[in-house]
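Postdoc handover notes: sequence design on the structure in folder B. Input tokens:
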């Protein structure tokens, strides 16, 4: 006698969705707030603009935003603040779209150009 197993009972759409979300989350390894001091930026609004420009790059190229940016809330002491978890691609895009008045951002851009034209 064979047992009939209904696939609906074993694999629900929700399980697959949860698995896909977990896989995407595992690729969001960076926090935007960690990039702020690394880029030696002083203006938080300029940093927010670099986040927006990086998201626009993804949107222009039809890269799914949810695979590169995830809004999260974090705590520091008694404060709660908004942050983003970023894929490595998003992390780099934020860096190269930063405020060029930051010496670090300008250095990153120049290094990228030098690598593209083979000067390094």
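Designed sequence:
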């Amino acid at each position: 006698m064979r047992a009939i197993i209904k696939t609906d009972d074993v694999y629900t759409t929700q399980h697959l969705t949860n698995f896909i979300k977990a896989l995407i989350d595992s690729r969001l390894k960076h926090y935007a707030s960690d990039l702020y001091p690394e880029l030696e930026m002083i203006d938080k609004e300029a940093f927010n603009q670099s986040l927006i420009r990086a998201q626009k790059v993804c949107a222009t190229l039809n890269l799914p935003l949810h695979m590169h940016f995830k809004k999260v809330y974090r705590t520091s002491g008694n404060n709660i603040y908004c942050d983003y978890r970023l894929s490595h691609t998003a992390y780099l895009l934020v860096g190269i779209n930063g405020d060029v008045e930051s010496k670090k951002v300008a250095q990153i851009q120049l290094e990228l150009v030098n690598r593209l034209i083979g000067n390094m």
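Context for whoever picks this up: The CA atoms of residues 3 and 35 lie 55 Å apart. Don't rerun without checking with the PI first.
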